[in-house]
Amino acid sequence: MTRALVLFAHGARAASWAAPFERLRDSTQARLTDCRVLLAFLELMEPRLPATVDALVLEGVDDITVVPVFLGQGGHLLRDLPLLADEVRAKHPGLRLQVAGAIGEDAGVQAAMTDYCIRSLA
């Protein structure tokens, strides 16, 4: 089984917007030496999620986890991402595709953001 982790972000018109997501991808990849880590976008930037999955499947990846790098479960995660996941699963029936919850809803991430907010008072 070949695994990959796809960090899924919204996307923006300004290329500089992606920099923190690229750093997250790179630092995650540095810790996961046996797993590909890629960044994909919902809109406005490339690569998009379906193209990213297509490329991974061509490389022989058969187990992909998508981590939405969103603060909460808004419309994009409640509607758009499930539709994209269904399309990907239909196109690649042998693929194991899992979708994690929004990164911002994780208790550890919330604690780190709280710490950051408190430190900003200094």
From TrEMBL:
Please verify whether the record's keywords include Metal-binding.
yes
Keywords, A to Z, come to:
Lyase, Metal-binding
The GO molecular function terms of this record are: lyase activity; metal ion binding
For whether the record's keyword set contains Transferase, the answer is no
Extract the Pfam families matched here: CbiX (PF01903)
Record-linked SUPFAM superfamilies = Chelatase
What's the superkingdom here? Bacteria
Which PANTHER family does the UniProt record give?
FERROCHELATASE CHE1, SIROHYDROCHLORIN FERROCHELATASE, CHLOROPLASTIC
Protein's recorded name = Cobalamin biosynthesis protein CbiX
Organism listed in the record? Telluria aromaticivorans
